[in-house]
Recover the amino acids of this structure.
C-alpha cells in the first residue's frame, strides 16, 4: 500500500472514530478479516473500517458520517451470501456495516401471526424462538444457522419451502430502513393488507443493500406444522419428477412443503462427505426426489403421503420409495441433500449455478445444458439438482479431481459461459435465488434490457444520488456522482 | 364552458386524432360518459378524449402523443374502483385511456402453473377460461364480472381469498408496462424465482397507474379446488370469531379459503335486497362467520369441515352452524354476504370504509369505533363486516332513512372523521384493499410521514417527471413540472 493511500486510510479511520462512538468502529486488520472474506472463502478483501452499530440511530449516524467523509457502505448480515454482495471491492473507500449487534427479537405475537425482529437476528434462532410459541416461520436454507433475517430480506432469499410459502418477499409485512441520506424509513407495520399507495418496502427487498440498510423487519407467522411426512423416491427421469410435482400439487392440495430433485451422483457425493450415511433405497435410479408434506391440526399428513405414494407408484410414476418412519429417519434423508453439497465442496473448486427456467422447459434445459458441458468439457462432471418445483436448478460442474487451481479456474470459467449460452435460449434467470452481488454483475449487465437499465438508474439516482449504498453491487452506474 | 377552453379542447381532440389512429380516439360526450362516471355513480366527470388502444404499441403511441400535447392520462380498467382512481379530475387536460380492447388471453399453461393475459381481460372470464383447464386463479371479489385483471394488479386488489392466497401482488409473476416516456417495459416472465436485482415490477403493482400503464400480466395458477366446504356459523361475539379464525388456521392446516365476519344486521340488509332469501340459521346470534375450506385431490375437505365444527362447537366457540349440503346451498350462504352490500346500497348514500388493523386489536377497534359513531351520530347505524382474518373490516355507517342528500352527506363526512380519529390510535390503514385514488388522497396525505413523502416524490420525479401518468391520484406533487 502506498504511503499516501495509507495516510488517507488512517485519516478516514480517525474521522470515523471521531464521528461515531468509538466502540462502533473496528479498524484492526485481523479483527476485520471475518467481515471481509466471503462465505466460501474464495475472496478476501479489506475495508476502511468495519462499523458495528447497536441501534437504528447508530446506523443512521454511521450513514451520515460516511456520506460526509465520502466513504461508501457495504451492509452485511451473516455474510453467508454466495455472490459477493456484502464484501468490499473498493477497500480504500468502503466500510463494512455489520448488523450483527442488532439481533433483538422485538416481539413475537402468536395472536397476530406476526413477529418484529432486528436485522441481525440469526435465522435459526428466530425460528426456534417462534417455534417455542407453537408458531412457524417457513424460510429454510442451508445457511440458516449463520444468516441474518435482514440479509434474507435484503437478498429476497429462497430455499426449500418456496413452493409452499413463497420467497422471503412474500413473508415480509414491514421494514425499518435507514435511507442513504441518513433518515429512517419506519414501516414496521404488521398489517396483512395495506393499500395506502405505492408499497415502498418492496424497493428494499432484494436490493442487496443498494438503496438503504434494513435495520428491522416484521414478518408473517404460520401455525407450527406439527405433522411432517418425508419421503425419498426413485424415478426414471427428471421428466417424471416434474410430472410427479404437478400431480403432487393437485393430489396433496398444495400441502407439499419441499420437493427436491437429485441425480444418482447425490449419493456418491453425500457419502464422500458423510461416509457412514445409510443408503435409504436399495436400487439405483436415474432420478431421485426428496419430498415433504406438512400440516397441522386435523389433517392426517402421514395418511395423505401414504395414499399419494400408493397412487403414483401404482401408475408407475414413482418406481421405489421410502417414507421416513421417525424424525431421525427424516433427518437422514435430508442429510443426503445436504451431504451432496458438502461432497461437492470436498472435491475442490467447482462451478455453481443458480438457474431458473419456466417449469415446463426445465427438463429440456437440463438435458441441453448438460450435453453442452459434456461436449465442451468432456472431463468435467455435471450435477443438476434443486428446487425443481420452482423451476430452480443448481446445475454445477465439477472439474476432474487433481486439477490444479488454474486448470480448475479455466474450466469453471468455460463451463459458466457454456451453461449461460444455453440458458439464454430458455428465457431463464442467471440468479433464481442467490442475487447478483458483485459476482454476477457482469453477466447481469450483459443481459440487461435498456428499459430496465434506465429504470434502475433512475431509481438509484432518485434514492441514492451520492452512491453511498453498496456501490459495485448489482450494477455499475456510470454518470451518477 | 368558456369559448377559449372549448377551442383548446377541440384543438387537443383534433391533435390526438391526427397523432393516433382515428378509431382509437373517442370524443363524443355521450359515448365518453361511461368512462367518466365512477362505479357507484357518485361522481360524473368528463375528459378531453377517451383513448381505446388495441395493442401495447397503441398504448405507447398514445403516451407519446399525450406527452407532446401536454395532456395527462388516467388509465382505466373495468372502472369498478371505489376510490375515484380511474376518473378524471382535471377534465380539460386529461384523457381516459381504457384498456378494454386489450382483452386477449395470450396463454394458459397448466403444465407451468401460469397464464399470460392482457390487462383488459375481465377477471371472471379469465377465471372461467383457466377453470376449463382444471386450474384456478384465486382472486375473487364482488366486481369480478366487470373488473379487469390489469386494474386488479394496478390496485393490488384484495377480496375474499387473501387469507389463503395473498393480495394480487403475490399472484403476479410478471408485467408488461408502458412507461411515462412511451417506452415498453417487457417483464412478462413466468419464472417463480428470479432474483436478478431489484424487482422493478413491484413498483407498478398498487401504483394505481401513477408510474405507467400495465398492458399485460403473467400470473400464478393453482390446481382447481374441486372440493369446497362452506359453513355459516353463529357465535357470541367478534372476539370469538377472531379466536375461531386462529383455531381454524391451525386445525385446518391453512386450507381455509374464506372467513367472512357479519353482524346480525347482515340478514336484515340482505333480505331488504333479496326478499326471498331463506334464513339459513334458526336462532339469532351476536356474530356470524361465513367460512370456506377448500382443496383438491386426496384431502377430504368435507370431513375436515365436519370434524373442525364438531370440535369448536363442543368447546362452545361456535354456538350453531350449518354446512352447505350442495353447491346451491353454498351459493345461498354467499348471497347473504353479497345481499348485505346490496341492502346497504338500497338504503341510500352511506359511509363506506376499508380499514385494516393488527388482528389482535380488531375487536377493540370495532367496539371503540362503533361507540364513537353512536355518540357522535346517535341516529346512524354502524355495520361492521369483512375479511376479519386479514384484519380488514368494512365499518360502514348508514344515515337514518329519509335523510335528505345534504343531511346524509353531512353525516357521512362527520362519520368518516370520527372513525378515522379512532383508527389513528390503532396503527391501522385507511385503505386495506381499495387503494387511495382521488377519494382518499387528502386523508392519506394528512397521515403521510415525511420520509415516505420524500421517497414517493423522488420516485415520481425519477419515473414520471413530466407528470403524464394519472396526476391527482394517490398524491399531489407540488414542485414537479
Amino acid at each position: 500500500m502506498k504511503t499516501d493511500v495509507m495516510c488517507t486510510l488512517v485519516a478516514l479511520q480517525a474521522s470515523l472514530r471521531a464521528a461515531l462512538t468509538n466502540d462502533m468502529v473496528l479498524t484492526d486488520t485481523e479483527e476485520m478479516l471475518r467481515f471481509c472474506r466471503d462465505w466460501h472463502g474464495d475472496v478476501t478483501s479489506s475495508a476502511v473500517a468495519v462499523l458495528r452499530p447497536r441501534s437504528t440511530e447508530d446506523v443512521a449516524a454511521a450513514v451520515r458520517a460516511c456520506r460526509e467523509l465520502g466513504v461508501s457502505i457495504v451492509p452485511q448480515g451473516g455474510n453467508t451470501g454466495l455472490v459477493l454482495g456484502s464484501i468490499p471491492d473498493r477497500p480504500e473507500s468502503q466500510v463494512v456495516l455489520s448488523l450483527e449487534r442488532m439481533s433483538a427479537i422485538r416481539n413475537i405475537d402468536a395472536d397476530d401471526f406476526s413477529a418484529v425482529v432486528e436485522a441481525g437476528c440469526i435465522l435459526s434462532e428466530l425460528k426456534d424462538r417462534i417455534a417455542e410459541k407453537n408458531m412457524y416461520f417457513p424460510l429454510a436454507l442451508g445457511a440458516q444457522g449463520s444468516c441474518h433475517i435482514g440479509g434474507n430480506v435484503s437478498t429476497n432469499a429462497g430455499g426449500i419451502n418456496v413452493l409452499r410459502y413463497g420467497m422471503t418477499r412474500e413473508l415480509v409485512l414491514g421494514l425499518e430502513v435507514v435511507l442513504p441520506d441518513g433518515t429512517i424509513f419506519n414501516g414496521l407495520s404488521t398489517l396483512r393488507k395495506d393499500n395506502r399507495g405505492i408499497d415502498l418496502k418492496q424497493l428494499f427487498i432484494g436490493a442487496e443493500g443498494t438503496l438503504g440498510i434494513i435495520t428491522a423487519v416484521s414478518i408473517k407467522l404460520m401455525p407450527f406444522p406439527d405433522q411432517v411426512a418425508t419421503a425419498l423416491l426413485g424415478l426414471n427421469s427428471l421428466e417424471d419428477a416434474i410430472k410427479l410435482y404437478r400431480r403432487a400439487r393437485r393430489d396433496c392440495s398444495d400441502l407439499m412443503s419441499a420437493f427436491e430433485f437429485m441425480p444418482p451422483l447425490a449419493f456418491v457425493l453425500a457419502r464422500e462427505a458423510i461416509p457412514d450415511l445409510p443408503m435409504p433405497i436399495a436400487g439405483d435410479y436415474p432420478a431421485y426426489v426428496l419430498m415433504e408434506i406438512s400440516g397441522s391440526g386435523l389433517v392426517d399428513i402421514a395418511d395423505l403421503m401414504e395414499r399419494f405414494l400408493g397412487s403414483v407408484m401404482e401408475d408407475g410414476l414413482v418406481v421405489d420409495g421410502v417414507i421416513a418412519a421417525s424424525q431421525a429417519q427424516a433427518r437422514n434423508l435430508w442429510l443426503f441433500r445436504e451431504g451432496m453439497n458438502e461432497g461437492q465442496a470436498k472435491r475442490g473448486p467447482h462451478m455453481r449455478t443458480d438457474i431458473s427456467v419456466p417449469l415446463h422447459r426445465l427438463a429440456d434445459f437440463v438435458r441441453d445444458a448438460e450435453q453442452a458441458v459434456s461436449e465442451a468439457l468432456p472431463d468435467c462432471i455435471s450435477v443438476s439438482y434443486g428446487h425443481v418445483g420452482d423451476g430452480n436448478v443448481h446445475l454445477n460442474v465439477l472439474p476432474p479431481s487433481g486439477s490444479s487451481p488454474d486448470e480448475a479456474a479455466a474450466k469453471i470459467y468455460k463451463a459458466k459461459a457454456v451453461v449461460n449460452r444455453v440458458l439464454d435460449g430458455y428465457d431463464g434467470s442467471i440468479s433464481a435465488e442467490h442475487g447478483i452481488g458483485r459476482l454476477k454483475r457482469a453477466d447481469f449487465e450483459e443481459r440487461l434490457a435498456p428499459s430496465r437499465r434506465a429504470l434502475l438508474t433512475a431509481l438509484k439516482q432518485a434514492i441514492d444520488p451520492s452512491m453511498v449504498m453498496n456501490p459495485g453491487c448489482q450494477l455499475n452506474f456510470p454518470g451518477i456522482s
User: Anything to note?
Assistant: Chain B is about 35% helix and 20% strand.
